[in-house]
Structures are given as C-alpha cells and as structure tokens.
C-alpha cells in the first residue's frame, strides 16, 4: 500500500526566503516520487520527479527535491521564494507496474512581499 | 498548456441527473487517467484506460463509469448525482501505462456543481 503525508497544509514565507515543503511517503516497494504544482483555476503541472539514479532532483522554476530512503522523505525546496511561487503543491507517489498516482493532501504556499 | 483538453470547463446540474465529461489526451498518449479533487477527499485517482482498455481502478463509485474510444479520447459518466459529487474532475494522459515513471500531463479540469 502506498500513501503520502504532507506536513503543513499552509506554509507562508517572505519573498526571497527559503521554501521548504515537506513530504513523507509510505511504500512497500521502491517508489517513484513526484511534485506537482497547481496554480489557481488551473490543472496540475509537474515540477520534478524521482525515479532512479541521483537522489537530488532538480525541477522547473528553481525547485529541487531530495529522495531520502532512510527517512522516507522527498521534501521540496527552493532557495529564494518569488511571488509567482504562490500556489498549491502536491506530492505524489507511484510504483512499478502501476502508473496511477497517490497524492498527498497538498500544501498551499503563500509568499509575503 | 499541457496538451490535454477537457470539456466542459464548468457544469451545473441537479441531484439525480447524469453528466458526461470529455477528455482528449495529448497527441500520441495512449493512457488516460481520471482524478477527482474535492475538499473532503483531496485528489483521488478514479480510473485509468490504456489504448481503449480499462487498466486500473481506484476509488470510483459504481454510479460512475468511463470509457476510452478508438480515437483515444475518454469520457467519464457520472449518474444519479449527489451533492457530494461536486468537485473538480481532472483528466491526465501519459504515453504508456505501467512503468510507474511516466509523467502524467493534466488537463485544466471540469468543475462540477451539483445543486
């Protein structure tokens, strides 16, 4: 069984500050991990994904995430927040043999000017 | 623009009614997924089709059904609608089916309001 936990349904940061969005997963097999972003009134857009290989994954818009198997985590970070980063962020997991995604409950990021 | 299109964008209907949501995947994508996003349940996987055949089922109610046509577009049929079915319904597509690594490309969604 797979599941994703996102700690913090709302996160506020100042413009220029570090963004850290937390994601922990549970999976009985090696997981594939994804971060998606949803801007208001839009669909989901892939930020980055981890499948195999390098555990530090770089994505679009300056975001990156690190897969830590020992901590079952895949936290999303960005060194310096921009106003345009305000959105809802979803962590998701899938596994080999099944492409459907299991999503976390989402974290709404607010960027304060 | 993900290349996935969904119609209609908004749908308002009454309890007990039936509606059909339509999705056209990205060109070349054989796999289509349907998800429901609601305040109560969050983002939930409903069902997946691959090249016309049902491939995986998630938390899809018996009142709901889907199909994928030979031209690869898909329709999600919701019947005997209840107030709790009000949600945003997303369609996503990907090139293949079972690797688990595939990026899914999401459409803009259909917002359903049941009154």
Describe the structure.
- The complex is a heterodimer of chains A (113) and B (115).
- Chain A is mostly beta strands.
- The termini of chain A are far apart.
- In chain A, 0% of the residues lie in helices and 57% in strands.
- In chain A, strands 2, 5, 6, 10, 11 and 12 form a six-stranded mixed β-sheet that branches. In chain A, strands 3-9-8-7 form a four-stranded antiparallel β-sheet, with no helix packed on it.
- Chain A has no helices and twelve strands.
- Chain B is built from no helices and eleven strands.
- The radius of gyration of chain B is 13 Å and the shape is globular.
- Classes of the chains: A mainly beta (113), B mainly beta (115).
- The interface between A and B is medium-sized, with 25 and 30 residues.
**CA-based gyration radius of chain A:** 13 Å
Treating each run of at least 4 consecutive H or I residues as one helix, how many helices of chain A? 0
- On the 0 to 100 scale, the average pLDDT of chain A is 92
Most residues in contact, chain pair and counts:
A-B, 25 and 30 residues
Helix content of chain B: under 10%
Backbone shape of chain B: globular
Assembly classification: heterodimer
Give the count of helical stretches of chain B.
Answer: 0
What composes the largest sheet of chain B? 7 strands, mixed
Point out poorly predicted stretches of chain A: none
Low-confidence stretches of chain B at least 5 residues in length (pLDDT < 50)? none
How would you sum up this structure in a few lines?
The complex is a heterodimer of chains A (113) and B (115). In chain A, 0% of the residues lie in helices and 57% in strands. Chain A is mainly β.
What's the helix and strand layout?
The complex is a heterodimer of chains A (113) and B (115).
Chain A: E1 3-5, E2 10-14, E3 19-21, E4 24-26, E5 31-38, E6 44-50, E7 56-58, E8 64-68, E9 73-78, E10 87-95, E11 98-103, E12 107-112
Parallel strand pairs in A: 2-12
Antiparallel strand pairs in A: 1-4, 3-9, 5-6, 5-10, 7-8, 8-9, 10-11, 10-12
Chain B: E1 5-7, E2 10-13, E3 19-24, E4 31-38, E5 42-50, E6 53-57, E7 64-68, E8 74-78, E9 87-94, E10 105-106, E11 110-114
Parallel strand pairs in B: 2-11
Antiparallel strand pairs in B: 1-3, 3-8, 4-5, 4-9, 5-6, 7-8, 9-10, 9-11
